[in-house]
Design brief:
about 20% strand, alpha+beta, Alpha-Beta Plaits, 4-stranded antiparallel beta sheet
Length: about 150
């Protein structure tokens, strides 16, 4: 069984109030913020460092090497700044990939390369789409530059 983990930011007082409210409602909660498995569930990244970020939902065949092939195809243009993937046992894997670029030109070149990968014979990715403006804002704290 897997238990949900919620990440919250607040003061010690805020957490005390939250614990009281949960207890009154018959809900138990534990602080697991320092547990090793939680370190891998929480995605730490620094949006303030982003200059030209791109966040893309990628679908790829759930086969050995498919995601590596995609990453190899963009490694000269992009730095990985965010990655969220969970194995689901399906034939298709899905990942939210965040990439950072030195220049807008490299960002566009990467988008062009992703589009080429969608239509080439390698089959390393099946679908790719940029995140919505709302998701981009939640991830970066900024509006997407057009």
């Amino acid at each position: 069984m897997q238990f949900p983990v919620l990440g919250l930011i607040g003061s010690g007082h805020d957490y005390g109030v939250l614990d009281e409210v949960l207890q009154k409602r018959g809900v138990s909660a534990d602080d697991v913020s320092t547990d090793e498995d939680v370190d891998y569930r929480i995605i730490n990244y620094a949006p303030a460092l982003f200059r030209h970020p791109l966040f893309v939902n990628i679908e790829f065949p759930e086969r050995a090497g498919a995601l590596l092939q995609f990453m190899t195809g963009i490694k000269d243009l992009a730095s990985l700044c965010y990655f969220n993937y969970a194995y689901s046992g399906e034939r298709v894997g899905r990942a939210l990939v965040g990439m950072e670029f030195d220049t807008p030109a490299n960002q566009q070149a990467c988008l062009d390369r992703i589009n080429t990968m969608l239509h080439d014979h390698t089959g390393c990715i099946r679908a790719a789409r940029e995140v919505s403006d709302e998701t981009f804002f939640r991830l970066t704290g900024k509006a997407r530059r057009i």
